[in-house]
Amino acid sequence: MKPINRRSLLAGAFASAGLAAFDCAAAAAQQRAGNDAPISPKDNLKVTKLETFLVKPRWLFLKVHTNAGIVGLGEPITEGRALTCAEAVKEIEPYLIGKDPRRVAHHWQAIYRHAFYRGGPILTSALSGIDQALWDIKGKARVQFLGGQFVPVAARAQHDVLGHDIVRPPSSSARGAF
Q: Which is the CATH superfamily of the domain at 47-141?
């Protein structure tokens, strides 16, 4: 057993106090994020409609609508083939209707891999615009980014290779985010 000296005692006390203060601040930030979010992580969010807008001479924009009223924007365009890309989005639309837009990577893989001919400029352009719109929805929902299932609530005490505790204080940019 390692003897306790003044340095380790003070380091442990300050680390515990700092971690407790950080946990309290993180819990308050989580509460604020939960109150400000338009939907909660457990709410049923579904894609209801995909809408394309052709802007002359050569642009195409996409709006993905959800049942919660959140709208995502994307740009599914191949230069000179706006109408073709719009038709490609219409072909993909039946797959996305009724699905959760927060599963962006899953939808990307499903749309890309379930096509007979993978890739190509038209499919990847349509997929790019849909991908942008789904990430837009996910960011607006702020569910996964602020306290969602993939992001830990606060930094915890971690152990190095030898088993010693390492407490990392939040960086200045992380403190500003809360």
A: Enolase-like, N-terminal domain (3.30.390.10)
